[in-house]
Amino acid sequence: MSRHPDEHGGPERVERLLHNMETYIARVPGFRRAHARGIGVRGHFTATPEAAALTSAEHMQGDRIEVVGRLSNSAGNPYNVDRGSAKTGIVMGMAVRFALPSGGNAEWAALSLIDFPARVPEDFIKLASAQRRGLPTGLPNPARIVTFLATHPHCLRGFRDIVAAPAPRSFATAAYRGLHAYYLVDAEGNRRAFRYHWEPAAPHDPITPEEHRELPPFHLLSEIRGRLAREPAEWTLVFELAEPGDPVDDLTKHWPKDRRRVRAGTLVLDRIHEDQQAVDDSMFDPTLVPPGIELSDDPVLHFRSEAYVESQRRRNGETKPSIVLE
Length: 326
Ligand code: HEM
Fold this sequence. Notes:
Number of domains: 1
Bound molecules: protoporphyrin IX containing FE
Structural class: alpha+beta
Distance between the termini: 49 Å
Largest sheet: 10 strands, antiparallel
Shape: globular
Mean pLDDT: 94
CATH superfamily: Catalase core domain
Number of strands: 10
CATH architecture: Beta Barrel
Helix content: 25-40%
CATH topology: Catalase HpII,  Chain A, domain 1
């Protein structure tokens, strides 16, 4: 099946994306163009027998797998605070690098969102441009965003999800979703489309607007440092299995709620990474999957990989200001 031109990536489209992100959202030398402020962590992952039955991927066979994670505020500007308005918060990210027993890595990067505001790369590029700040207020012009959403109605739910993100108490109390479909391939070669998410073991603990106002602007990093010094943070990996006919190349479309869910494993993050510079310099590529997991045709999934490589190339070639962000 041939693709619509907006679904393709390529260097020209990556260039326009980064131009728009850097010009209209933020560019601070040395920092990621999105998820600029974050913290590297370490821990381990253990898959369940149910996961091992569904995929031959080596990190899903039940052995203890060492992981490096990065927990982040999704803003492109590292100086952006960990809150939105008095009642709302920010979108958070959790990236996980699994050390494969045979060497090499598998990587995933998920968001504290249920919906995403782009179905194809071009949606994201245009949304970045619609956020440009104008004279005389120095704020984004709401008319531009309204026009974008009116002409891209499939992006509305994801946009609403971002602006209504709840005020987070901790990285450890949030669920993170992979959003894209992938395929599980078992030892017999059977293929099933799935989506994954990380469900926190810590109870949902909403923060009141009063508490929110009192919190220091960058409270998430100091909170997770304090928490991991006392106790590990845990998540259950959940696979949602598609049925024939469910859309596998469009992350803006949900699957019916009754789809089979499988407890696929436990992630334990138990300490701050000893080399923050190394985690900062690295990149988490959601297309880096081992045999036993395959990529869907979701154009956003493939574009992310291209965009992250270029973001990493740019930031690692720049001098990063030495600033304390906690
Ligand atoms: C067209 C869609 C998207 C674009 C253009 C985009 C762009 C970016 C860029 C430029 C970075 C910084 C990469 C780096 O310098 O290492 C980034 C980081 C990140 N993105 Fe995306 N992104 C998109 C969609 C998504 C989706 C769908 C998810 C999750 C389901 C996601 C989760 C993350 C996370 C967790 C990070 C931080 C990774 C880390 O800690 O290194 N992004 N994104």
